[in-house]
Amino acid sequence: MKRTILTTALLICCFLASFAAIADFSGMWTGTLKVETGEVYPLLYNFKIEGDKLTGTAKTPKGDLPIDDGKITGNDFKFTITLGDMEIAHTGKFYADSIGVDIAVGDTKAHTTLLRKK
């Protein structure tokens, strides 16, 4: 009986800790993306979390674009941004002080790290 209560309490604590980590993911994150041609593009995302749904915006030269199809599973996430007729897929992992992001447009892929905007 004591073992069952202890196990249940431990599982609840782990569950609550994972939600606390996800809550820290919300907010403004910034970084740069260097492409194969050597050009460097600034990145700015404003993430919002609602349960396991990731929403928000990405700042582009054409203005703020909405984050589509955003989903969070633990510290992993995925979403897309549509720029004109291009779908830009994002996948990544949230760490306590940074976010690792893989960005794909067609066959072209790149990786970057985002930091919380201060």
TrEMBL record:
Signal peptide boundaries: 1-23
Domain of life per record: Bacteria
Keywords for the protein's UniProt record, in alphabetical order: Signal
Protein name: Cytochrome c biogenesis protein ResB
Protein source organism: Mucilaginibacter lappiensis
